[in-house]
Amino acid sequence: MTETDLRRRAPAAARNRDPILAALRPRLPAAGLVLEVASGSGEHAIHFAAALPGLAFQPSDADPEARASIDAWAAEAALPNIRPAIALDAATLPWPVAAADAVLCINMIHIAPWAACEGLVRGAAGLGATLVLYGPFRRGGAHTAPSNEAFDADLRARDPSWGVRDLEAVAALAAGQGFAAQEIVAMPANNLMLVFRRLDATPRAAR
Q1: Which one of 7, 21, 61, 196 is separated from 43 by 20 to 30 angstroms, measured CA to CA?
Q2: Matching InterPro entries, A to Z (predicted)?
């Protein structure tokens, strides 16, 4: 990366973007607004926006350098359906977004305090949006693979408030905010996609 190139590159994004896209296609609305929370480098948002032109994508991140990377990738792609990145901390409500049809969060809740997951679920519920989470999870109190267990130990060593989350705890949190039972989609590399829908929701995104 040169001094003037603000684009960040995440190797994991290049590996997982196509499987995530394949899982998202039948689960996102055909049109509307997708708010991505913790967009990181922005590579996912750009990839999804290019593949799903009927949807508008609103990337966000709490880190100003991440937002600069997102906007640099967006400027290069020149896609009409991706909006400038906004500052958004999942744990801080209210969010600076008036409406969305879906909230997407990839690989965030395990590298953030539990309060970020709580804020994420509350924020999505407040928008009346479908909530889609992707990443590693424990099921029934147990890790789904030795690699996830080692990853969890590393995360907790770096910050005791981090760690691979229990699927059941996330589902209970979502149920408390009015979400229906989640759809669980098995993904490569021992990851899962969780899809939570609000049965009482009316899409409110500006089209």
Answers
A1: 196
A2: DUF938, SAM-dependent_MTases_sf
